Amino acid sequence: MTTTSGSPTSIGSAGELSGRSAWFYVTVGAVGSVVVSLVAGSHLILAIVIIPLMIAVAWSNPVAMMSLLPVWMVLLGFVRRFTPGGGNITFSGDPVILVGPIAILIMVFAAYQSGQLRLTPLARAVFAINVLALVEAFNPGQGSLLTGLGGLLFMLVPTATFWVAQRHMTTDLLWRITWIVALSSLGAAIYGLYQQFSQFPSWDQAWINSKGYTALNLGSGVVRAFGTFSSAQEYAAFLSVGLVAWVALAGKATRMVWPLHLACTITVAVTLFYESQRTSVFLTALALGVMAATRFKMKPVWIVLAGLAGVGALIGAAGFFGGSSGSGTGGVLISHQLSGITDPTGAGSSLPGHLHATWHGMSLGVTHPLGRGTGSVTLAAGRYTANSASHGTEFDPGNMGVAYGLLGEILYFILAALALRSVYRFAVRRSDYLGLVPIGFLLATSFQWFNGDLYAVCWLVWLMLGAADSLQGEATDVATAPAATVAAPYVWRKPGEARRSFRA
């Protein structure tokens, strides 16, 4: 954007939507459109009202949109179930799921227009895998062109937030987003606890009945909660990054008294445990162990050991409490969680199956080096390709092999190495708790960075990567800047009097 004189102006400057007005307009528009949708009995009304609002905010004030988007993504599953026509929350051609991707694409275009993007080594790796996603969208191996284009919503668009963060991220904005994620996870946890131990509201129960979501059923009549999200997996993943956010915020001086902060942290942690998603619990323990070691600026090898120690402590604690069966909802959830943690490779664990699928996907990358296409590992494959199901392998290394072939696998591991190096350097150079947020987010979502099915989580991972890449220079200044000096005051002296020396 330029002025009439040709000088650049910052997006979100005076005269455009401010952060507070953006929140107001989007909130009023969202609530109003939900009401209209309820009256009209049409889910389409919601999208018709919300999409133009989000486009306006994303273009005029990307910084405000970066704060709004986490809230919208957290509420996406709830809104789709609550409003008429939104019972099918999978990739169903529902225009409501386009709200987030459209906002992201508008922000990316605005960032590109600013002409201030930097091609760091990490940015080059992200750009290369973005280009590969676009090329593989036209791969005939996935069945149809619509499958490839639909797959871009899951495999490309979330990664594009890297460029938005690289252009607009600041220290204050990163703190703000961390707070929003933390508070959103607390709200989602409270709603999930209500689902788990009280009842599922009618709109949630209708979805359970209509979808037959087998992953929710733990036996003995116990159904796993899913909060405000589109799946239990997404719910657990967001609780993981929410817990990371609460732990990082514990080191920042805020107006929240520490007993309340501790209570919020424990609430999210307990809810994550009761959610009974073992992978998320293990990855959260890994992330917290790494964050603790990074805070003390340990060497990478010790940081890896600290992460493994966090996982070991989790297994030890689970073994201490035991994995015996229990009665009631709480007993079934605890028993399911503890048995899986104490014996992660046992007969009742899904980990061996996930590892086998991942290895099979990586093998396909070698035997089919051109891959099957961007959409082949996403929900788009099941919708747009006749007699075809998604070939996703749950974890990124396998998905890269299936979708992008051998080149995709190579680029993925290069990208992963550069990403981990970037967030580690950012944390060490900042030497404060904010520096721990990106590395905590990345590790809490390990091997899920390209899982676009996690609507509320995947894009946040790339936002944090872009933040670490963008604030590297500032991080160096924070860690190494000398203490501010005070200029010597001017003192009058008599004619002929010798000059006095003052300490700065």
Task: Looking at this protein, list some descriptive labels.
504 residues; mainly alpha; 2 domains; two-stranded antiparallel sheet; 20 helices; globular; disordered N terminus
Give structural notes.
This protein has 504 residues and is mainly α. It has two domains: 106 residues, no CATH class; 358 residues, no CATH class. It has 20 helices and two strands. Strands 1-2 form a two-stranded antiparallel sheet. Strand 1 and strand 2 form a beta hairpin. Helix 3 packs antiparallel against helix 4, helix 7 runs parallel beside helix 19 and helix 8 crosses helix 11. The longest helix has 35 residues. The radius of gyration is 24 Å and the shape is globular. The N terminus and C terminus are likely disordered.
Write the layout of secondary structure elements.
Layout: H1 19-40, H2 44-60, H3 62-82, H4 99-114, H5 121-136, H6 145-155, H7 161-168, H8 171-197, H9 202-211, E1 217-219, E2 222-223, H10 232-249, H11 258-275, H12 278-295, H13 300-321, H14 328-342, H15 351-367, H16 379-384, H17 396-430, H18 436-444, H19 455-470, H20 472-480
Antiparallel strand pairs: 1-2
Helix pairs in contact: 1-2, 1-3, 2-3, 2-4, 3-4, 3-8, 3-19, 4-7, 5-17, 7-19, 8-10, 8-11, 10-11, 10-12, 10-18, 12-13, 12-18, 13-14, 15-17, 17-18, 17-20, 18-19
